[in-house]
Specification:
The structure is a single chain. The protein is α/β, with parallel strands linked by helices and about 160 residues long. Strand 2, helix 4 and strand 3 form a beta-alpha-beta unit. Helix 3 runs parallel beside helix 4 and helix 4 runs parallel beside helix 5. It is globular.
Length: about 160
């Protein structure tokens, strides 16, 4: 597929949604066949410093809801629970706060040891500095999911649109 064809697909110039979805399913079937990936998800925290209007973890929601943040031991315990049921992909996610880097940097080596090295540790903890990404990779993170939720600055900043 050429870049132009891909842009046309994504901007809807060439296909209806049904056609686009059918095309995507075909690509998925070619690559993944009938396989599914099962991930054990650890919700590290529901606190967030950002106030994105679309997100249930947005900063202003912390005023009305109780908040939590797991410590290193709790994260490892949750990974242990995933391992006990045969899951070898651990996704650790949570709101965007600075404290998560230190907690996860310490937890990852323990998780890897728990799984005897046969685990993928995926992270989804919001925007971090380049140095933090490097620390998490060095600790053994397999990959980092960085979501692009919106390009609308007002929506991202928590302003009404």
């Amino acid at each position: 597929m050429t870049k132009r064809e891909l842009v046309d697909l994504l901007t809807g110039r060439e296909m209806r949604d049904e056609d686009l979805f059918a095309f995507a399913r075909g690509i998925r079937a070619t690559i993944f066949h009938d396989h599914i990936a099962v991930r054990g998800v650890v919700e590290l925290t529901n606190r967030c410093r950002v106030n994105c209007m679309f997100c249930p973890m947005r900063r202003d929601n912390m005023l009305e809801n109780s908040t939590y943040i797991l410590d290193q031991e709790a994260v490892v315990m949750k990974a242990h629970e995933a391992r006990a049921v045969g899951i070898n992909v651990v996704l650790i996610q949570g709101g965007e706060i600075p404290q998560t880097t230190d907690i996860i940097e310490r937890a990852i080596p323990e998780i890897i040891e728990l799984f005897h090295g046969r685990v993928e540790v995926l992270l989804n903890l919001g925007n971090k500095s380049r140095r933090e990404y490097e620390r998490l990779k060095k600790a053994g993170a397999y990959s980092y999911i960085l979501k692009h939720e919106t390009a609308n600055a007002a929506l991202y900043e928590g302003n009404e649109v």
